[in-house]
């Protein structure tokens, strides 16, 4: 199949020429890369990637096609795709469509046949930055004009674009446990992990009040993953503080981890190029065991601030690549969080215990109240 040409322009002026992938058009966002060798459709539909141009480091994208069961939300959430080999023919009997048909159907613009290794090395050196992909505009001056109008991720609130518009429930109303989820951009497999542990789940919009959430009479509270800068989400921080006041078990993942940290006075910061992949080693400081984890975040929790506030926050997990904070517990509260994604099955089950830990905390809380 002959593909039209396409161009990628980065904010620092670096240009890459390749071929169009997906829809013919123009798209912008912050460029980032993911090192996973499989799971491209799960990544495309992860709400945490909203507003980002994704570079896939695996050489072939599309070789096993696409299927509706491999999605983490109702639609593609990345802003654009950048890959090396865009493989339209596929060899998977469960697949429902080719990568090209899938991207065209979702209206996603992409570029292929570019040196993704060079792009990744550039991001690792220069840091995350905005970019523009186009398969219809090739005037660099016009592309730069459009790119200059794109806001930086630092300071950008995005959860309100991907959260559920209305609260909804999942599971059996007579289940053993009731879990309230604050949806900042939750993945479907997180919800499935709760359902498999005999939970009746109610998912609430990002800007729900604590009063609305507690009217569900939950046994446990959860703050989900999601996109954007946690420093621009005072509304979620206020909700998290109200959740902590309820003295109920509270669990946070990724953005939920950052929001929980900010709720107890620990700031977050923009990382140089973030962590995105399914092979990040993390050490559990409580058990001494290490885990292979799945990660997707461009912001982190300040280790310096935690070191000065050990009476409020205990570090439970650290990244073995760069020593960043990967997990915390709130001192004196039944609340904990991790920066990585236990529901993504890395390892493949290294981090699944975190959901069991949350359920155990609910059981302990119920036993004390009984």
Automatic annotation (TrEMBL):
Keywords: Amino-acid biosynthesis, Arginine biosynthesis, ATP-binding, Glutamine amidotransferase, Ligase, Nucleotide-binding, Pyrimidine biosynthesis. The keyword Kinase does not apply. It is an enzyme of class 6 (ligase). One of its GO terms (molecular function) is ATP binding. One of its GO terms (biological process) is 'de novo' UMP biosynthetic process. InterPro entries: Anth_synth/Amidotransfase, CarbamoylP_synth_ssu, CarbamoylP_synth_ssu_N, CarbP_synth_ssu_N_sf, Class_I_gatase-like, CPSase_GATase1, GATASE. It comes from the Bacteria. Residues 1-177 are annotated as: CPSase. Its EC number is 6.3.5.5. Belongs to the CarA family. Composed of two chains; the small (or glutamine) chain promotes the hydrolysis of glutamine to ammonia, which is used by the large (or ammonia) chain to synthesize carbamoyl phosphate. Tetramer of heterodimers (alpha,beta)4. HAMAP family: CPSase_S_chain. This is Carbamoyl phosphate synthase small chain. The gene is carA.
